[in-house]
Amino acid sequence: MNSGGAGRTALIYGIAVAGDALATGLMRRGWRVLVADDAPTEAKRALAAGLGTNLVEAPDTEALAELVAAVDIVCPAPGVPETHPVVAAAVAAGTPLRTEIDLAYEFEQQRPGGPRPMLAITGTDGKTTTTLLTAHILEAAGHRASAVGNTDVPLVAALDDDVDVFAVECSSFRLNWLLSFRAEASVWLNLAPDHQNWHTSMASYEAAKARMWAHRRPTDVAIGFADDETVMRNLRAAGGPTRTFAATDADYRIDNGSLVGPSGIIAPVACMTRTLPHDLTNALAAAALVLESGLATAADVQAGLATFHHPPHRIEPLGTIGGVQWFNDSKATSPHAALTAIRGFDRIVLLAGGLNKGLDLA
């Protein structure tokens, strides 16, 4: 799809980090931008003013229809669910719904000198860690790598950076309306109930994840978690080159104390900075991405694993008091994520709370 903006208008619905970055990226490419938000604040008004436009505040159904009729595309921010009235208004008007990573991918295809490779990561849990680990291994291989997407940096905001390759964390929110985005290699880590306050159903959530593989080229490699039947069903349907990863019985696996792939030993488990069960599968996923894309060697993987620092709030050690070790796992925002962490310990006392996202907590 042509993403050139001359004479075209986009509606950005939801103005925060991703919305602001996308609006800026569109305007730099000749688009006119309208901005709306359901929860206006002075900070959001200031962002809109910085873009040279006014913030449309909590528009009603009639105002939404008028906004959508006045634009060529509607770009819901990641926090705007598929049940939102702006989505229904766009569908009713036949106005394309576009996501930040999709438009950013199209912008990158028009880059002088050609597009840079992208590696993509999705799943219910482990996305951020695997994305950061992938970028770290790429840097160990001598690349200038950027971890983007559902991290703190939207892909569109990184396009002007002096980098060689992107590791793109793809949430279902960013995948939901893809028309173009693809990656040289992409991995689906797992699927478990989550974000049911955003999606209309688990089927919708799964379908959004599967769109990561919808626009693959014949040489693009799809990688799936062999122990997740939903992931494997979608991997089998994806066609083209595929690989699997899991602790055992997969193309990328743990064997005799080492990470092993189709070409043999990649790295000893002992080189890793942490070796909980999900650390091993995340490492296998990252290794598969960089090796299948041809962007790194086994030696690079080992160097990256040996120097990787895990991001905060993910089984983060806080200290020991009275012989009791304390960990912060506040990024475990679903039962699946919490159970993954719990399985890494022999004995545990769990302190839990937070906001339910439409999930069964029984």
Keywords for this entry:
alpha/beta, 2 domains, six-stranded parallel beta sheet, four-stranded parallel beta sheet, 15 strands, globular
Explain this structure to me?
The strands form 4 sheets. The chain has a 6-stranded parallel β-sheet with strand order 6-7-5-8-9-10, sandwiched between helices. It has a 4-stranded parallel β-sheet with strand order 3-2-1-4, with helices on both faces. The longest helix has 16 residues, at 277-292. The chain is globular. The chain has 2 domains: 9-98, NAD(P)-binding Rossmann-like Domain (Rossmann fold, 3-Layer(aba) Sandwich), CATH 3.40.50.720; 109-307, UDP-N-acetylmuramoyl-L-alanine:D-glutamate ligase (3-Layer(aba) Sandwich). A hairpin with a 2-residue loop joins strand 11 (253-255) and strand 12 (258-261). It is built from 13 helices and 15 strands. The chain is of the alpha/beta class and 362 residues long. Helix 6 packs across helix 11 (277-292) and helix 6 crosses helix 12. Helix content is 34%, strand content 19%.
Name the beta content range: 15-25%
Query: What are the segments in which pLDDT stays under 50 over at least 5 consecutive residues?
Result: none
CATH class of the largest domain: Alpha Beta
Helix coverage percent: 25-40%
Number of helices: 13
Q: What is the structural class? A: alpha/beta
Number of strands: 15
Q: In angstroms, what is the radius of gyration?
A: 21 Å
The average pLDDT value, as a whole number, equals 91
Q: How many distinct folded domains?
A: 2
CATH architecture level-2 label of the largest domain:
3-Layer(aba) Sandwich
Largest sheet: 6 strands, parallel
End-to-end separation in angstroms reads 45 Å
The CATH H-level homologous superfamily of the largest domain? Mur-like, catalytic domain
CATH topology of the largest domain: UDP-N-acetylmuramoyl-L-alanine:D-glutamate ligase
Shape: globular
Q: What strand line-up does the widest sheet have?
A: 6-7-5-8-9-10
